[in-house]
């Protein structure tokens, strides 16, 4: 990539929005499917939905020119094991892994997206509770809460892996904002009533 394009790409990266949902939940096996939507200010929404049973499904790129094998899984040990590997580890919890095996390039080629809760880069680490719906509760020892770490890995046979980490902060959904406003309304009304009666 030409160097003059890097600032523009950086701006687009900072505008990336991720929406992660679990449309398939089984009481015996837990989450069965994962749906990931990502969008930037300049790109259309991209949707990836994958089963988390590890089974491969053949897919095609948007143009249809390339094909790959898509699979997904939950790795309960990977987040903890990778906590010390580079900045941003230590929050613990399970890791959702989406794998694309690039069979048309030959054996050994694949990309992986690994998502888990992790301490922000530069933090001193600390314990963060992982809730059932994937939200983080509590703060790290450095005074900052856990973030979503998206680790993108390109695996090439006979060569070192290329690893790029991106960190995302959680934002409230429209429903959560509405619920918070509704909950705050009675408190505001009570405060107003108290101030009137006390005057």
Task: Characterise the protein shown here.
- The protein is an alpha+beta fold.
- It has a domain at 49-168.
- It has helices spanning 6-14, 78-81, 174-198; strands at 17-26, 30-39, 46-51, 57-60, 67-75, 95-101, 110-118, 129-130, 136-137, 147-155, 162-168.
- A 6-stranded antiparallel beta sheet has the order 4-5-6-7-10-11, with no helix packed on it.
- The longest helix has 25 residues, at 174-198.
- The model is unreliable at 79-89 and 125-144 (pLDDT under 50).
Q: Which helices and strands, and how do they pair?
A:
Layout lengths: L5 H9 L2 E10 L3 E10 L6 E6 L5 E4 L6 E9 L2 H4 L13 E7 L8 E9 L10 E2 L5 E2 L9 E9 L6 E7 L5 H25 L1
Key phrases:
199 residues, 6-stranded antiparallel β-sheet, 3-stranded antiparallel β-sheet, 3 helices, 11 strands
Give a quick summary of the entry.
With 199 residues, the protein is of the alpha+beta class.
CA-atom Rg in angstroms: 21 Å
The tally of helices reads: 3
Task: Report the biggest beta sheet as strand number plus sense, adding barrel if it closes.
Answer: 6 strands, antiparallel
Order of helices and strands: HEEEEEHEEEEEEH
- The portion of residues forming beta strands comes to 35-45%
What shape does the CA trace take?
elongated
Q: Which spans have pLDDT < 50 for at least 5 consecutive residues?
A: 79-89, 125-144
Structural class: alpha+beta
């Amino acid at each position: 990539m030409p160097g003059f394009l890097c600032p523009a790409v950086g701006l687009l990266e900072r505008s990336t929005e991720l929406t992660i949902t679990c449309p398939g939940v089984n009481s015996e096996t837990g989450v069965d499917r994962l749906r990931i939507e990502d969008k930037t200010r300049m790109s259309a929404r991209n949707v990836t939905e994958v089963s988390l049973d590890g089974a491969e499904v053949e897919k095609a790129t948007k143009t249809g020119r390339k094909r790959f094998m898509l699979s997904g899984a939950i790795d309960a040990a990977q987040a903890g094991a990778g906590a010390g590997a580079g900045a941003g580890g230590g929050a613990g919890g399970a890791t959702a892994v989406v794998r694309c095996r690039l069979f048309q390039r030959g054996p050994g080629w694949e990309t992986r997206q690994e998502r888990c809760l992790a301490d922000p880069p530069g933090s001193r680490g600390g314990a963060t509770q992982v809730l059932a719906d994937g939200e983080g509760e509590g703060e790290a020892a450095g005074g900052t809460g856990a973030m979503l770490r998206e680790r993108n890995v390109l695996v090439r046979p006979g060569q070192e892996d290329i690893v790029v980490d991106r960190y995302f902060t959680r934002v409230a959904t429209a429903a959560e904002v509405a619920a918070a406003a509704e909950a705050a309304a009675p408190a505001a009304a009570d405060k107003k009533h108290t101030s009137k009666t006390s005057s």
